[in-house]
Write a structure and sequence with these properties.
Helices cover 46% and strands 20% of the residues. It is of the alpha+beta class. A hairpin with a 2-residue loop joins strand 2 and strand 3.
Length: 123
C-alpha cells in the first residue's frame, strides 16, 4: 500500500513534537474528526526558522506532517502560503488515492498557522 520512502519516514518521522513558544499554530481536521493535524511554526524576519507537527492520524498523516515541516523550514511566509498537498505528495514519493486527504490536512494546517500569525502580528 505504501512505498518504501513513506515507510522509512513513518518509522523515523522528523519534527513530531509540540513546539514550545511557537510564533503560530494551525490545525486541520477531517470531516467527522477522524484525523487531526497541528502545525507549529517559529518565524523570524518573515522566514520560517523551525516547524513541527502533532497528529492524531494514520501513517500517511504522520509522514505528510514530517515532510511538510522539512519543506517549510527556510521558506518565507509567501513561499509557505503556496505549499500544496500535491507538493507534499510528490516529496513523499506518492500516496494511495485513499490517503491523499492526509496531505490536504497539512496544506490546510499550514494556511491556518499563517492566518494565526497574521492575526497575532496585526492586532
Amino acid at each position: 500500500m505504501y512505498n518504501d520512502k513513506v515507510l522509512q519516514i513513518f518509522k523515523n518521522p522528523k519534527n513530531a513534537y509540540k513546539m514550545e513558544n511557537p510564533s503560530c499554530v494551525g490545525r486541520s481536521a477531517t470531516c467527522g474528526g477522524g484525523d487531526v493535524l497541528d502545525i507549529f511554526l517559529r518565524i523570524k524576519d518573515g522566514v520560517i526558522i523551525d516547524a513541527s507537527f502533532l497528529t492524531f492520524g494514520c501513517a500517511a498523516a504522520i509522514v505528510s506532517g514530517s515532510v511538510a515541516t522539512e519543506l517549510l523550514k527556510g521558506r518565507t511566509l509567501e513561499q509557505a502560503a503556496s505549499l500544496t498537498n500535491a507538493q507534499v505528495v510528490e516529496a513523499i514519493g506518492g500516496l494511495p488515492a485513499t490517503k491523499v486527504h492526509c496531505s490536504v490536512l497539512v496544506e490546510e494546517a499550514v494556511k491556518a498557522a499563517l492566518e494565526d500569525y497574521k492575526n497575532l502580528t496585526h492586532n
